[in-house]
Amino acid sequence: MNIIRISSFSVRFVAVPALLAVSAACAAAGNESTLVVSASSDGLSELDTPAAVSVVDGDDLRLAAPRVNLSENLSGLPGVQIQNRQNYAQDLQISIRGFGSRSTYGVRGMRIYVDGIPATMPDGQGQTSNIDLNSVDRVEVLRGPFSALYGNASGGVINIASQKGSQPASVEASSYYGSFGSWRYGLKAQGATGDGSQAGDVDYAVSATRFSTHGYRDHSSAQKNLGNARLGVRINDVSTLTLLFNSVDINAQDAGGLTNAEWHANPRQSPRAEQYNTRKTTKQTQAGLRYERQMSENDDLSLMAWAGERETVQYQSIPRAPQRKATHAGGVIDLTRHYQGIDARWTHRDAIGAVPVTLTGGLDYETMSERRKGFENFVLQNNTPSYGHKGDLRRNERNLMWNLDPYLQTSWQLTPKLTLDAGVRFSTVNFDDNDFYTRRGSNSVTDPDNGDDSGEARYHRWLPAAALKYALTDAWNIYASAGRGFESPTITELSYRNDDQGGLNNRLQPSTSDTLEIGSKTRIGNGLLSAALFQTDTKSEIVVANSEGRRSSYKNAGQTRRRGLELALDQQFALDWRLRASWTLLDATYRDSVESEKNPVTRGNRLPGVARNMAFAALEYAPEAGWYGGIDLRYISEIQTNDSNSEQAPAYAVTALNGGYKWRTGNWVLDLFGRVDNLFDRSYVGSVIVNEGNGRYFEPAPGRNYGVGASLSWEFD
Description:
five-stranded mixed beta sheet; mainly beta; globular; single chain; 22-stranded antiparallel β-barrel
């Protein structure tokens, strides 16, 4: 019997805290095979995992790319809609099968992990700002029912693994210069003593990057400093220890959205940003430690712990008049977050009769404390407001959030061709808000008392999932899976009510989703053809009720349905040629009508922010050395901007072209490249601000733009 060890959405000596056996057995010709789930360096197998999953190699991410945003080379994945807002104050806009599309900033509805440390907080709010593309080893994207086993807000999962140091040691310097005054330079060093199998062996990888841009739009400049480090130690024959460190510092202006008329008149303008001097600064530092031990031939133990701090100050475009209400929290957000967590799991491998079985159990605990303050975004000068300055305190509270999730998962190799995977997670999410700011109002109806807005909320759900995979041949697997997920409101979504009153938005309830999926994966020569057909029914969908001045309130909108088809082909041919193509059909609609003074929902309306059709095709020529180049085409159909479907961002298709030359001589490697994005200078909307209250839905994308880059590396003997 061949024992095959692969990671199941845990990678390179770092555990992702939840999904521990999302894979099934590989069928080997003439041999009985089973799966042992572990955090091995082999990574996730796209062919053998009974779920819709995509794996992108780090070298592919960096090929002829700026190495700044995940949107550069992930936009071609099926089911994944990732948009660059051209606004570093608001992060990327990412949705997976429609989950996350409501986000007006940051990332919602999915879980993101960087080297096993959640980039998604316990309440489900996440960000991509601390991902260092300069040192990424690979990116794994999981879609479908098994995403639910990651717990709260896991409509999809994105897992990023950094490079592990290896022999021979090397250093690399890289740079990129592009349109709109954009430039990036980075340094990276990696290496190891020994091969990692002997006590005392050490591996290390360190990376630092600086990025700056004037921005495509007015008032959209940004600067970003990013550092990432990883140190692994082989303690003895059966245990390893890995230390992880990450830090990011961002200072970005916020251009805001445009109306349809403003976009057509001048897509680069930012008419309100200058007046309010909208901007955002973010500083985050985190560290993690992972211990792995092989307890016996059939038992493994993994312990992961992490802690971090994130400080954010944001100035919003809110006029003085709304801020005069006693219950208003002001136009400046000032918050500090401390977060930490642990994940412990035990994996046991055995057999019941002739059936190999893997059983994994664990406990995930995450907590975050947040000190949130709000200030007026103006000071008075001769009784005239001067915006863009921190004024009087209008909010002062401490928020506590935690989740406690035990989980259990098992994999059964029922026959050499048939595998059953099943799991369950009990997810509990708790919120506790302590309000330290109260104020007596006048007798005016428009100026009520600002009372004590303290409150608490707790949500918990059972999250089961199961999958059957059958190997028709050694190179062709089919599977069927089902699962239930849930998504609680984030603390930001709970913080603002849509009736202009103070206090937590306690009427906002979690959404629950049931997903069914069938799929097929076929190895064709040196390529993989995959297809997935799915349906997700959601109750109490959380949607944007209103969004004004970069402040959004939320509501539940009854039932929704997401039905879709995903096709993907990744084919290598003629040695150095590669063809990648994907198509996503996603019909995401409301199943209920919901009355509302703003943004009413009518049954049958499409979910805003979600494209019905997405297509991607890329042809690359990439030998190990010499000339290389590629061309890609991306199409996205029209996107609704609000629940009433009264406005749309038009469909568009854009083309990108890249080429370069790679020299290899002795221990040196020099890579020079150039690229052109939006080759045919199309005018289009790159992303939308869902349900923006003033109709400023549109965030324009740049026209034709250029960039050149270089990297120089040296390998030590």
